[in-house]
Amino acid sequence: MTDASDDADATAFARALSSPLRLRILRLCAFDARTNKELAGLLGVNPGTMLHHVRTLVSTGLLAAEAERSGARGAREVPYRATGRSWHGPPVPNQSVVLLETMRQQLEEVDPEDVRTTWLGLRLNAEHLAELRQRLHALVEEFKQRGPDEDGDPYSLVTVLHPDRNPRVVRDSGVEEDRV
Q: What are the DSSP calls for the chain, one per residue?
């Protein structure tokens, strides 16, 4: 039996991660703490709008405030850093749609010549599908646990593994052939 507060927390978590803008905020705060003003500038968003999104992420434990600092002309600034909770949090409905939209928005700002993609069709039985999922997860988890390289450049990695609508073709002879 689930507690009502657990359900409310899961709902708030899912809502927080249902916005491509909030996912981009988390990405920008993954390695470096950033202020509301810095985030607004990087993402081309009004600072008031950004504050709403930052507060949503803080309230769900996805962003954490660091120690205040003095900014230009002595203004109070609060930098925020992603907590990593999105990595191991509860499942989020339709997350793949939001992630793909977030990726699309980010790619608008990237030179297409700098993007490398791979699209591979596979035909796997249940055992090999489970193995592929496990090995991909283990590899990504290994690199996440390493943390950022001090001398590293930022990159984004997206892998998409999904059932493919590519049914087998059965010819009159009864022999199956792959449809191209």
A: ---HHHHHHHHHHHHHTT-HHHHHHHHHTSSS-EEHHHHHHHHT--HHHHHHHHHHHHHTTSEEE---EE-GGG-EE-EEEE-SHHHHS---TTHHHHHHHHHHHHHTTS-GGG-----------HHHHHHHHHHHHHHHHHHHHH---TTPPP------------PEEE-TTS-EEE--
Note the residue count of the chain: 180
- The 10s digit of each residue's pLDDT in 1-40 is 446 668 888 899 999 999 999 999 999 999 999 999 999 9
Q: In one letter, which amino acid is 156?
A: S
Q: Is the dihedral of CA 48, 51, 53, 59 positive or negative?
A: negative
| CB-neighbour burial class of residue 129 (10 A; exposed 0-12, middle 13-18, buried 19+) | middle
Separation between Cα atoms, residue 77 and residue 51, nearest integer Å: 12
129: its two tokens: 């599908």
Cβ proximity of 61 and 83 under 8 Å: yes
Q: Residue 5 corresponds to which amino acid?
A: S
Bridge partner list, 178: 168
Per-residue model confidence as pLDDT tens digits over 130-150: 999 999 999 999 999 998 999
Phi, psi (rounded to 5 degrees) for 70:
-90, 130
